[in-house]
UniProtKB/TrEMBL annotation, chain A:
NCBIfam families: chap_CCT_epsi (TIGR02343), thermosome_alpha (NF041082), thermosome_beta (NF041083). Belongs to the TCP-1 chaperonin family. One of its GO terms (molecular function) is ATP hydrolysis activity. Gene3D superfamilies: GroEL, GroEL-like equatorial domain, TCP-1-like chaperonin intermediate domain. PROSITE patterns: TCP1_1, TCP1_2, TCP1_3. This is T-complex protein 1 subunit epsilon. Keywords: Acetylation, ATP-binding, Chaperone, Cytoplasm, Cytoskeleton, Hydrolase, Isopeptide bond, Nucleotide-binding, Phosphoprotein, Ubl conjugation. GO terms for cellular component: chaperonin-containing T-complex. It comes from Cynara cardunculus var. scolymus (Globe artichoke).
Automatic annotation (TrEMBL), chain B:
This is CCT-beta. It comes from Cynara cardunculus var. scolymus (Globe artichoke). Keywords: ATP-binding, Chaperone, Cytoplasm, Nucleotide-binding. Residues 17-29 have a biased composition (Low complexity). Pfam families: Cpn60_TCP1. The keyword Lipid biosynthesis does not apply. Its main location: cytoplasm. PROSITE patterns: TCP1_1, TCP1_2, TCP1_3. InterPro entries: Chap_CCT_beta, Chaperone_TCP-1, Chaperonin_TCP-1_CS, Cpn60/GroEL/TCP-1, GroEL-like_apical_dom_sf, GROEL-like_equatorial_sf, TCP-1-like_intermed_sf, TCP-1_chaperonin. Molecular chaperone; assists the folding of proteins upon ATP hydrolysis. Known to play a role, in vitro, in the folding of actin and tubulin. The lineage of its organism: Eukaryota, Viridiplantae, Streptophyta, Embryophyta, Tracheophyta. Residues 1-32 are annotated as: Disordered. It comes from the Eukaryota. One of its GO terms (cellular component) is chaperonin-containing T-complex.
Amino acid sequence: MALAFDEYGRPFIILREQESKSRLRGLDAQKANISAGVAVARILRTSLGPKGMDKMLQSPDGDITITNDGATILEQMDVDNQIGKLMVELSRSQDYEIGDGTTGVVVMAGALLEQAERLLERGIHPIRVAEGYEIASKIAVDHLQQISHKFEFSATHIEPLVKTCMTTLSSKIVNRCKRTLAEIAVKAVMAVADLERKDVNLDLIKVEGKVGGKLEDTELIYGILVDKDMSHPQMPKQIEDAKIAILTCPFEPPKPKTKHKVDIDTVEKFQTLRQQEQKYFDDMVQQCKDVGATLVICQWGFDDEANHLLMHRNLPAVRWVGGVELELIAIATGGRIVPRFQELTPEKLGKAGLVREKAFGTTKDRMLYIEHCANSRAVTVFIRGGNKMMIEETKRSIHDALCVARNLIRNNSIVYGGGAAEISCSIAVEAAADKYPGVEQYAVRAFADALDSVPMALAENSGLQPIETLSAVKSQQIKDNNPCCGIDCNDAGTNDMREQNVFETLIGKQQQLLLATQVVKMILKIDDVISPTEY
Amino acid sequence: MKPTPTTCSPKIHQPQTTSTRTVSRGRTQSEIEEEWLARSAGIQVERLFKDEATEEKGERARMASFVGAMAIADLVKTTLGPKGMDKILQSTGRGHSVTVTNDGATILKSLHIDNPAAKVLIDISKVQDDEVGDGTTSVVVLAGELLREAEKLVATKIHPMTIISGYRMAADCARSALLERVMDNKEDAEKFRSDLMKIAMTTLSSKILSQDKEHFATLAVDAVMRLKVSSSLYFGSTNLESIQIIKKAGGSLKDSFLDEGFILDKKIGLGQPKRIENANILVANTAMDTDKVKIYGARVRVDSMAKVAQIEGAEKEKMREKVQKIIGHGINCFVNRQLIYNFPEELFADAGILAIEHADFDGIERLALVTGGEIASTFDNPESVKLGHCKLIEEIMIGEDKLIHFSGVEMGQACTIVLRGASFHVLDEAERSLHDALCVLSQTVNDSRVLLGGGWPEMVMAKAVDELARKTPGKKSHAIDAFSRALLAIPTTIADNAGLDSAELIAQLRAEHHKENSNAGIDVITGSVGDMGELGISEAFKVKQAVLLSATEAAEMILRVDEIITCAPRRREDRM
């Protein structure tokens, strides 16, 4: 089959070295792909929801990650299968776009694939299945729009936001202090949010972690935290009303970029050169001093002599500050990053109300707090925790919570969580299915079944009877025409998610459905897999 | 101390027992799943992961992490308590250097571990070491016990999430039980000091220093109290930097002493005074070998020998000027971080100045701190450089080594502890033990709440948790019950390690604690139940709290895992 003939009857090769490649075609290819996708989804299925379990991942270097964040699990899983990689991409794009629901999207895609397989077995053409899914996802997304609620909050009334963030955090290991963390996340987002334009620049929120202390010690700092200390041990540890010079040039002898040689051949030259050098250091420090700086933050290192001169002239300095941090400091303090000493002017200095150095624990760990900045829009979430894994996991959780808060500020529509939205969509899609005359009807119905699998997984993970619970909730939704009924994961005694305050953002949910459908469509369309056989 | 990789470590692999266990219970979850996939898809998923990457699911994963964690806990278990045994660690590095220790953190740090769950435990012990300094073994043992109990519960079909919520409730309850019984003698200076003494002795009693624990406890308390007196001047009184520990082999542990002042392990330059009173000290970090021109690209190019001589002369002149400037500060002692060559040394000797070269960075910083001077690198304006002062500098002999002793320094909190001992191993271990004690003490100075020791806190917590278990409805109560059993494991281990009849003792303790406000704990020396208050065995509240919270956190973390995915190990060019 990899041999074709041209018009003169000569054979030519289409697929080189065919023997050494394995090839799957037709239904086999689709089935293999589907089962790979389902296998990936199966791994994540148990991580869904507040009672979801964690996965322990060991990296090639032996480091350990413990998480139940779908995107992180898939990213570190070392997946080799092509379709598996597609699923990884899927979860990643959900992470980039929305930041939350990374597990849900994969589970949904897995369920869609499972359903598709059954249809394929009945002989329905994959493209028809894909089209049916497309129709169904449109219905579902529209339905979500209908059942969504507007969600009222303002800069002073942040309680609803906090509650939404708590829903996100409750599925993480940090749910012990989800209230505190949710508040921190919301306050951080509110601090940097532009409520007029409905935009949040998450770059302004820095999430720092340091091992030690307890999770409860996690704090929100209205300012910047730099993991550095003063360049000279005897510089003051606390500076009030600091005027900060932000430099990207080293306190070192000049290094012209063009190649040059300075030849010393007489004693006079030697002496002038020496004096120049001393003057050079003196000038550098003097220039900083002249513009009125009371703190120097530098991206580069200091020469010993320059360091002492700085200390001597009572000009505290921090060296080796990373580029990203430098930019953040510049944003926060309203200063400009200055590449040359000559260009320092008083206007380019950043201002901060308080800069202090703080020590932690018994080891000599110190960090620099820059607070009360001129531009209070940059904030830092400083995480403490028992061990490194805990901190990393908290960082991820906070990131999710920040994303949720941001999404709500962008678009304040919400749907109800705990599987309520999925069940409601499933009912709507099921009802709409009968209207389609073609084979697509089956696919649309299959989509409705797939939607059920998310609440089913939730119920399963919470130790409830999945089928029983799902059917009970479903009938309740239809009977009361109430789209807020979901799975009662926390054993709170009510199925009404409105009472439990379990929300999810509308765009997050819509995105989940759309992304999952797209990927499934893509997988279904593949009918030939050619891969090099190894060994 | 650098963590030395050692060979003694048992590599904890996926234990064989798990597979047999799961088989006996029928097919494992993963087997069923694979079969399902094979049946439904018709085609087996060939390879989802890369080669060598492994995946363990459900029961198996949980079992693997339980077993790994328990193995680690069992490993350090025997070092717990005053009668705990030591471990020898031999490094695989060059020289196969040997460390003898019973410090949990040190042991665990040097293990090569394959098991992911075990790594979590090592991590918490390390954090415990960094944060509070002591209790590194207890935290691992407690976490191990919590997991052991959890394993039993999981076997009886209780969901891990239920166990976790039970553990959380129990930990909260235990903490508040401790809080109710803490003693705080912050106001009463004398009592506080005796509290500190007791804590130091309790900490040291499990270490190699236990023979002379009174001696060392006094040393440690004195050192920390000095810090405290002046802590208002210097914020962050947990700053242990101004306590210096110098190890000198020779003599016995009893000969160790606390010196009020600062000792620098350096020699005085030739022909310079050996003793200076009312010294003015300049602490510097500057090149005193050849003072190079730092401008980039500068180099000497000459065309005749005469010019070389001239340049050399100029260089010498430059150095002479520099030395003159330094002398111009009106000093009689000069300490430099970098080398001092013979020529400037001679100049200093001529001026009658004591010059010390090549003091390490820590030494310099500490010296600057204690003498109140600043570390200088330029010497152009002598009037504004802050000089350090001390009453007396002299050369002293410890054993066979000459050291420089600075006494009567400006900052009163500085002091040096000189450790003497028969061998380097003893000294290293002594230093670790003393470090533990100092850490705990300085933490206690900050947070002066104190508890009794000898298994007393565990008994108090267990009692409170037991009561909670009885009150709690639902499956959680099993988990809470298990928590209290895990707590009891610590006194049990202490008794076991001391070769006592633990079952008998624990039963007695329980009965004793049933009464209100009992002070009963294990008296390891007589092997019976004793009053901890009378025996003077105390522990810092902060340490116990950290043990409780981090152990629970770690156990919770491991319990939540239901799947382990191990990536293919990165290939190394050469493995040792």
